[in-house]
Write a structure and sequence with these properties.
Shape: globular
CATH architecture of the largest domain: Beta Barrel
Strand order of the largest sheet: 6-5-4-3-2-1-12-11-10-9-8-7
Structural class: mainly beta
Helix content: under 10%
Order of helices and strands: HEEEEEEEEEEEEEEEEEEEE
Length: 320
């Protein structure tokens, strides 16, 4: 019985303590300033489920994806994947994230996040080398994957046992070999459990022009929509979530004019959702706005937003 209990405890090739956080510097081709990408472990509280983990990824503070992982004989498998919209895909059978045999030439089909992108492609261990990132110097295994489905994608990982991924890079090119995107992340400091669990707000909110876009505080007047997103922490069951869109200073409407409001119900404590406001037929009025978020009629969060004039478009023959 003692031996059986000991054998049941999973040995993970990555840190698996509840609350462990990886912090990365995120670089995207064409963007002037680097961003951030974090991954956090949520381990099962039941000691009998030490072979199960949930890892949540956030890009620039906004939830990007969630992986549901299990450890089978040191092989790390994904049983499900949830995107930023809350849509969950279940894998049956599970897909391999990391094989148990990490030797040169090992190959597997990967499905999951890479440098802020969701990819599905074959991976292979192509070598081992020294690599330096902001977190330090490492001797790392080099994984590479390539896929050409009209979009040519090359993904590179540098992986260190006991640490995890220290660097990832994804390059995507079009049929004419033109560069479409290049993302990379580098580990900023060694992963470690959070020393003090942050006090989460009852409701966290952000605004963007799409469901999965980066949080924004400035939007162009030609945006097709503005999406107000929220995520709850410890909400009561069926709590009422209300978003109120207010024009603070536009020069058109009275100061602090209520433009619109919407309401939703949170069925679970960590529910999340979004409210979408479409561009009016006569366009957005430029100026300063705010979106107030209420939980059961209590003001819980606020997001300020400025709408700026859109850049003039080039005139075409149809304009004459």
């Amino acid at each position: 019985m003692v031996l059986g209990a000991s054998a049941a405890r999973a040995e993970w090739p990555i840190p698996s303590a509840d609350g462990t956080i990886w912090q990365y510097v995120l670089t995207r081709e064409g963007e002037d300033r680097p961003g951030t990408l974090t991954r956090q472990v949520f381990a099962a509280k039941n000691s009998a489920e030490q072979n199960i983990l949930r890892i949540e990824t956030a890009v620039n503070g906004a939830t990007h994806s969630t992986e549901f992982l299990k450890n089978e004989g040191k092989t790390i498998l994904a049983t499900a994947f949830r995107n930023a919209n809350g849509e969950t895909q279940t894998f049956d059978p599970p897909v391999t994230i990391l094989p148990g045999d990490l030797t040169f030439g090992a190959e597997w089909n990967y499905r999951g996040p890479v440098a802020g992108l969701d990819l599905n492609l074959p991976l292979k261990i192509v070598g081992e080398s020294e690599i330096e990132v902001p977190a330090g110097k490492f001797r790392a295994l080099h994984f590479r994957g390539e896929k050409n489905d009209g979009l040519f994608t090359v993904a590179d990982f540098w992986f260190v046992r006991g640490v995890g991924s220290v660097k990832e890079m994804v390059t995507q090119r079009g049929p004419s070999d033109d560069l479409l995107s290049r993302n990379s992340i580098e580990l900023a400091k060694l992963p470690a459990p959070s020393q003090t669990q942050p006090q989460l707000k009852k409701l966290e909110a952000s605004v963007s022009t799409s469901s999965g876009g980066d949080p924004l505080d400035v939007v162009s007047a030609d945006a097709l929509q503005i999406v107000a997103r929220w995520r709850g922490h410890g909400l009561r069951k069926n709590a009422k979530i209300r978003a109120v869109w207010i024009a603070q200073d536009t020069g058109v409407a009275p100061v602090d004019f209520k433009v619109d409001e919407a309401t939703a119900v949170a069925p679970i404590s960590n529910a999340f959702g979004k409210f979408t406001l479409s561009r009016p037929s006569d366009g957005w009025a430029t100026g300063k706005y705010r979106v107030e978020f209420y939980v059961d009629d209590e003001l819980t969060d606020r997001v300020d937003l400025t709408i700026t004039p859109s850049e003039p478009r080039p005139r075409s023959p149809q304009d004459f």
